[in-house]
Amino acid sequence: MSLPAILPFAQEQIRKSLFDGAIAVDATAGNGHDTLFLAKAVGASGHVYSFDIQQEALERTHLRLHSEGVGARVTLYRKGHQFMREVLPEQVYGRVAAMMFNLGYLPRGDRQVTTRAESTITALEQGLPLLAPYGVCTLVLYTGHPGGEKEADAVLAFTKQLDPKQYDAAWYQMLNRNHAPSVVAIKKVR
Amino acid sequence: MSLPAILPFAQEQIRKSLFDGAIAVDATAGNGHDTLFLAKAVGASGHVYSFDIQQEALERTHLRLHSEGVGARVTLYRKGHQFMREVLPEQVYGRVAAMMFNLGYLPRGDRQVTTRAESTITALEQGLPLLAPYGVCTLVLYTGHPGGEKEADAVLAFTKQLDPKQYDAAWYQMLNRNHAPSVVAIKKVR
């Protein structure tokens, strides 16, 4: 029994907010890890909207979902998450139970292509109002690559100023590892 | 289902490390909240050693334990936690499964009497080697009182330099509340 690791901690917060038929957003499809997790957690009557700017990421995600038989539950967008508001169907506004960001670069991909402070904050500004009451958004932050520290600082600064009447926000991190990832969790209070 | 609050998060990490017959230390008895929690979790064959410098705290703790019928499982010391190594019986060295610190002042007590950076760090230096393999130590940090910020900074600086081969260390905090408490959890790896 260890202290919670970063990715399991994020998934645990998300899992508590999901249910059969829920709507979820994966803001960073990447290798499809979180999209698959969300697709399983929302059940056959739920739906996941998943974003990535890299064709490679969407192909890996597509393969993974279909090999697990949950491809029909997911809509993949080749589009940056900063455009989620214009892309998502209006019917999901205020109904998103869970939203996950896994920032940084695509593992086993081009490390030059990373999420960036400015577009991540835009995505958060657009994404949080889409959450349902008691909906949860998690962001896994990495600081080991160029721009990572700046992006993490921007996410933390943005999160600190959220209205506590509208959102709870927490930060979980390992203390004695260099550049270990950390996770921010934001929960809509009502 | 909310994000974990600070005190439940601390208790959850501690609970995972406890078992019937375990040995535990409450470094800050206070009103007896954590001592009672530990006394229940170690069972009738376990034991808790609990420290406080204030008579008032020890009396409240004593009353609470006896009203719950677990007083016999607890040894109370009127002594600062920075002396735990000289006070605890040698047989418990390396056998402590859980150690809790709840820093700051005694609720409903004299707010001038607080734990302090220097003695807290001494207690940690003495306490961590007493942990059993996979033992856990938690510290709840408060920054809203004079000296609180300095003490929290000292605990964080101390924890960051712990050898990752010997300890895992994590920090959990709320982000959008002023002076919300936070919790550091340290787990002996082996």
UniProtKB/TrEMBL annotation, chains A, B:
GO biological process: methylation
Highest taxon in the source lineage: Bacteria
Pfam families assigned to the protein according to its UniProt record, in alphabetical order: rRNA_methylase
Keywords linked to the UniProt accession: Methyltransferase, Transferase
GO MF assignments: methyltransferase activity
Protein name: rRNA methyltransferase
